[in-house]
Amino acid sequence: MNSRKKQVEAELPRCIENLHAPEALKESMLYSLNAGGKRLRPILVLACLKAFGKDEALGLPAACAVEMIHTYSLIHDDLPCMDDDDLRRGKPTNHKVFGEAMAVLAGDGLLTHSFQAILSQNSITAEQKLLLIEELVNASGAEGMAGGQAADMEGEGKDLTLSELEYIHIHKTGKLLTYSLVAGAILAEASEDAIDSMREFGQHIGLAFQIRDDILDIEGNQEKIGKPVGSDTANGKTTYPSLLTAEGAKDKLVSHIEAAKAKLQEMQLSHSFLYDLTDLIALRES
Question: What is the pTM of this model?
Fold first, then answer.
């Protein structure tokens, strides 16, 4: 995982540094892109290619694209009009360093430039580019991450049902994780059945990721997770522990992890890396 993370983190700045754009905007974009994190989404792109026995280098542009989308969403999530957070990954949030207006523009810049990262790749077909962009639009837009964020904001201070909570997290968190896997399958020229199986696997790990996030919000170490513990409760959000109890949430996490692993076994791929990443999602401390 560390070797892939280094590859992605070497490539990400190159996507921004040569832009013909104001230096302050580029600095703001790079500040959040370079802030660290697990790089789980881009690594999933590469891991999926490995599972299909393909060259992982094919996935670097799509990996950078999904990380740019993820980073833009974090910049906007942290704004005072949304979660109003001061820390992200243990560092001051973008708007605390560059101001709210520049933070909004940095997020906008990362969102739009993510598509250019895919379009600029010469080693894949025009059809693959179109499929990758179509999937990324669906995963990040109103029917995906943005829609999930909107539902999340509307749900603050309300007692949500489990199905309402799952809708939020399938869209807000799960869609981009699933995109990473689907992108890898598209680049590997996988069959439609294999792509559908990756979608199902992605939905399970997306929900597992969010359940673990909710558990860490009540049991985690602030230094490790890089943001204040208890922020969900302070913001009046329904979480898996608040609906199911802490133990019930842990049971739900285990059920999604087991279902994800079962799907991998069913696909009969060279899946050991994806299997290990699934365990990481279940056991992570940050």
Answer: 0.93
